[in-house]
Amino acid sequence: MEQFDVVVIGMGPGGEHVAGTLAERGLRVLGVERELLGGECPYWGCIPTKMMIRAASALAEARRVEGIAGSVGHVVPDWASVARRIREEATDHWDDQAAVDRFVGKGGTFVRGTGRLVGPGRVDVDGTPYATARIVVATGSRPAVPPVDGLDAVEFWTNHEVVEAAELPRSLVVLGGGAIGCELAQVLGRFGVEVTVVESADHLLPMEEPRAGEILAEVLTAEGVTVRTGVSAHRVAPDDGGVAVHLQDATVVRAERLLVATGRRADPAAVGLDTVGVPADARTVPVDEHCRVTEGVWAVGDVTGQGAFTHVAMYQAGIVIRDVLGEPGPPAQYRALPRVTFTDPEVGA
Hints:
There is one protein chain. This protein is α/β, with parallel strands linked by helices. It has helices spanning 13-24, 40-43, 46-64, 79-90, 97-105, 159-164, 179-190, 210-222, 310-325; strands at 2-9, 29-33, 109-112, 115-119, 122-125, 128-137, 142-143, 171-175, 194-199, 226-229, 233-239, 242-247, 252-255, 257-260, 264-265, 292-294, 297-299, 340-341, 347-348. It has 9 helices and 19 strands. The strands form 5 sheets. Strands 1, 2, 3, 4, 5, 6, 16 and 17 form an 8-stranded mixed β-sheet that branches. A 4-stranded parallel β-sheet has the order 10-9-8-14, with helices on one face. A hairpin with a 4-residue loop joins strand 12 and strand 13. Helix 1 runs parallel beside helix 9, helix 3 (46-64) runs antiparallel to helix 4 (79-90) and helix 3 (46-64) crosses helix 7 (179-190). The longest helix has 19 residues, at 46-64. The radius of gyration is 22 Å and the shape is globular. It starts with a strand and ends with a strand.
C-alpha cells in the first residue's frame, strides 16, 4: 500500500490550494479528482459564466446607446463567439492537463478517480488503496435535482450543459430563481432565448432581501423574461421535442429546454466520511474552527456547509494548510461572509 503524508480528495480550488501548497512545502501529497482538476470554478462556474455575463452585458449596453449617447445599428447577438471563447480561452476544451502539470510540477502526485475514505488513515481510489497520516476532503457539491414527478424521464440542463452549449435553444424554462438561475436567465434572455423563470418562493433570490428580488424581477420582465414566483413545478413531461412544466396553479409552461437551477448539494457519505464518525445521512460535514472533522481528517469548501463559494473554500484551505503544518493563525470565522449575484443590477450582501 503506497504511503503519503497527505491525501486530498477533491481538487477544486480549495483542494488544489491545499495539495499544491503542502507539496511545495515538502510533504508527499496525493491529489485525487474524478472530474477536472480545478473543479467547477474554471470549467463550469465562476470563470466561464462571467464571460457569458460580460458578453450579455455588452449587448445590453449597446441597446442602451439609443437615446442616451447617440445611435447604433441593429444589435445582433452571436452566441457562437461566446461559446468559442469559453471552449478555447477559458476551458481549453475542458482539458485540465495544464492544471495537472502545474500541480505535479509542485511535487504532488495526481490520480484521476473516485476517492473514498475506508477508515482512519486509509483511502481507496477505484480499488487502489493508499495509506496516509492526513486526509483532506474537498469534494464540493453537485447540482441539486428536486423531487419533481417526471423529471427523471426528460433531458434537462444544469449549469454544466449551459456553459458547454455551442448553440442556444429557442426557449427555456428555468427551475429556480436563486443566484445561478437568475444569472443564466438574464444572459440567455439577452441573447434572444425566450426564458421563463419558476421560483417557489414569493420573490427571486430567496436568500436576499425581498425587495432585491422584486427589483430584479421588474428588470427581467422589462427585458422580456417571464418571471413566475410563489409557484412550484409538480410535474414535468416531454412535449413535442421539448418539455412541458406543469405548475401547482394548474398552468403549464412549455419550452425547448429545461434548466434545473435549484441549488447544490454535498454528499459526505459518498466520500466515506461515515467511516470516521460523520452520520451517514449528514447533508454537510461538521468541522471545528480549524476545519477538522476528526483527528487527521479535515474538510474544506462546499462540503462543510459554510457557503458554496470559491472564496470560502480558499479561506478554509489556508486554515487547513496552517493546521497541517503546525503553524499559528486565526481560527475560521464566518460572521462577515460576502456574496454577490452577478445579474444586472448586481445584488451583494
